[in-house]
Design goal:
Length: 223
């Protein structure tokens, strides 16, 4: 599941603000975890409880930045967490291309902002049906954060790769939904035609059968 980058970033900030950490995450890549120098911590102590949005955005090592691209891309293509292996622009382009390629090759993915379409595509892809319809909840903690325009723009810059990925993902997702609906209409049309054909054939068979002769009991009664 992918999510609008700004909403996702704010949601993670609120999550961390309440004391969440990823201390147990090993961030393994090419068989090893990153060194402290490669992946410094944004805070000292047990967690980052109470962190302000400004503090959250100020940490250059914050893994919340472009998280969706990093989670989908093949990090080994850019030397994992070793930022000195290539320039930032080249690294970003490679990660984005890798994330897009991997996403395109997935049989299914959904978007948080399109719950009903996500459900429909899942059901069509895997021929499964959920008991209840997905619900679109817009009253999230992220939605409750009031942002100044300059702050929103800064978050978008920090998540530039995620913004590009989401734009690509949304376009591809809607194309898949449209294609699935076209297939569904074709299947229904074919089923309808098959049903009409069977009915017509049954009617022709009934008309071609010889008239039914009297049964033996009727003949005896007449005799």
């Amino acid at each position: 599941m992918l999510r609008d980058p700004v909403s996702r970033y704010l949601s993670e900030w609120k999550h961390v603000q309440r004391g969440a950490t990823w201390k147990t995450s090993l961030h393994m890549c090419d068989g090893r975890a990153p060194t402290q120098a490669e992946l410094p911590s944004c805070y000292s102590g047990d967690d980052w409880s109470g962190v302000t949005l400004g503090e959250f955005m100020a940490c250059p090592h914050n893994l919340a930045n472009n998280r969706q691209v990093r989670m989908l891309a093949d990090l080994s293509l850019v030397g994992c967490y070793n930022l000195s292996s290539m320039g930032e622009r080249e690294r970003g382009a490679i990660l984005l291309a890798s994330a897009m390629s991997n996403l395109k090759n997935m049989a299914f993915y959904g978007l948080t902002e399109f719950q009903r379409k996500t459900q429909y595509l899942f059901e069509r892809t895997f021929r499964l049906h959920f008991i209840a319809a997905f619900t679109q909840l817009n009253s999230t903690r992220a939605a409750g954060v009031e942002l100044q325009q300059d702050v929103r723009h800064r978050i978008e810059r920090l998540n530039f790769l995620d913004v590009q990925l989401y734009k690509f993902a949304k376009e591809l997702f809607l194309q898949r939904v449209q294609f699935a609906r076209q297939q569904e209409r074709q299947e229904r049309r074919w089923q309808h035609e098959q049903k009409d054909h069977q009915s017509k054939r049954q009617s022709e068979e009934n008309q071609s059968q010889p008239a039914t002769t009297e049964d033996y009991a009727s003949q005896v009664a007449r005799w």
